[in-house]
Design goal:
41% of the residues lie in helices and 14% in strands. It is built from 14 helices and 13 strands. The strands form three sheets. Strands 2-8-7-6-5-3-4 form a seven-stranded mixed β-sheet, with helices on both faces. Strands 9-10-13-12 form a four-stranded antiparallel β-sheet, with helices on one face. The chain has a two-stranded parallel sheet with strand order 1-11.
Length: 367
């Protein structure tokens, strides 16, 4: 017998494959600016390590998962060891694990509707109830979220910096919020884009883990580490909380090549530094060009920019950009209608994007 909760959910789509768009629009090539991938790709150290390991993929992963967990713990600070770390099949899998572990019996999740849609989808998938709290100026309204916490609240999801808006929460905002959260509630800080943050007041939530709070930090190797196709993510929490969450995982849930590539990528902090500097440089270029074109946007702490106030013809604008060989992300599924999210690409890719925008913005948006 089918589960009616699943039947009511929309099938999760990853978008039309690039190859199909090329064929449909008769294009030789398409620039991918929709998935927030690192245009510089993975670290050469990661590529080399995976090439050396590929001849052993007939074996299940061995100690490489514990080695990766230890490296992640070292990255988080001297107070952490591998028992604080859970490695999963992308940070999306971390979110699934949390909802499966805590929302049994109809528990509630506090969620901002203008954010990553999987928080709400996984909540419903595992029988939970999403409590939606509207954003304020494209950012999380933490005081309003704290006021909605009730007896049935199990999880609070906070994306920092937020996808798709690029906005960021400061240390003061997070600390004041945590003072209002009951000890029993698990607060999940999704930090998939933390490595791109330039603002010095960005919140370090690991202090709350060290203080024994029910806080989970979720991160991924899909963004600045350039390993999106390998699907490796991780969570950091207290040892007791991590031990509980590990019970939800399947054996060998992350492929060996992913574990090995991620571990090698952590060793190449120079690649991370270059990727961050490139992103910052190209972000400022796009700011200048968007200002010149009189296109409104939300200042970002991520590797993408949200274009806003585009009017009612966003799908037509998206199609027009595709016809010019550039694919960006419509954000209605993220709870932000009348907007487009553009990934910050290479210099050449961003120049092509600006050219395409200049050609279509007046035609489609009536400017």
């Amino acid at each position: 017998m089918t589960d009616p909760r699943l039947s009511e959910l929309a099938v999760r789509k990853t978008g039309t494959p690039i190859e199909e768009l090329q064929e449909e629009y008769g294009l030789d090539a398409i620039i991918r600016l929709f998935a927030n991938e690192n245009p510089w790709g993975p670290s050469p150290l990661a590529v080399r390590a995976m090439r050396e390991a590929v001849g052993h993929v007939h074996r299940y992963p061995g100690i490489c998962e514990d080695e990766l967990r230890s490296k992640i713990a070292n990255l988080m600070g001297p107070e952490f060891d591998r028992h604080h770390v859970l490695v999963a099949n992308g940070s999306c899998d971390v979110l699934r694990v949390l909802c499966q572990a805590f929302l049994h019996g109809g528990g509630e999740s506090i969620i901002c509707p203008s954010t990553f849609p999987l928080y709400e989808l996984y909540t419903k998938m595992f029988g939970g109830h999403p409590v939606l709290v509207d954003p304020k100026d494209y950012a999380y309204d933490l005081p309003a979220m704290s006021q909605r916490i009730g007896d049935r609240t199990r999880l609070v999801f906070v994306c920092n910096p937020n996808n798709p808006t690029g906005t960021m929460l400061t240390q003061r905002q997070v600390d004041e919020f945590m003072e209002q959260v009951p000890e029993r509630v698990v607060v999940v800080f999704d930090e998939a884009y933390c490595d791109y943050v330039e603002e010095e007041h960005y919140a370090d939530v690991t202090r709350h883990i060290r203080e024994g709070r029910n806080v989970v930090v979720a991160r991924t190797f899909s963004k600045i580490y350039g390993l999106a196709g390998l699907r490796v993510g991780y969570a950091v929490a207290s040892k007791d909380l991590t031990d509980y969450l590990l019970r939800v995982l399947s054996p060998y849930h992350v492929p060996a090549l992913g574990l090995i590539g991620a571990a090698a990528g952590l060793d190449d902090q120079e690649h991370i530094r270059r990727s961050r500097e490139h992103n910052a440089e190209q972000k400022r270029y796009l700011y200048r060009e968007l200002d010149r074109l009189d296109i409104s946007y939300v200042p970002t702490q991520c590797n993408f920019i949200l274009l806003v106030d585009l009017g009612r013809d966003v799908p037509a604008l998206w199609q027009a950009l595709v016809r010019h060989g550039v694919v960006v992300q419509q954000t209605h599924a993220f709870g932000v209608p009348d907007a487009l999210r553009i990934t910050i690409g290479t210099g050449e890719e961003n120049e092509r994007l600006v050219e395409a925008l200049e050609l279509v913005i007046r035609e489609v948006a009536g400017r």
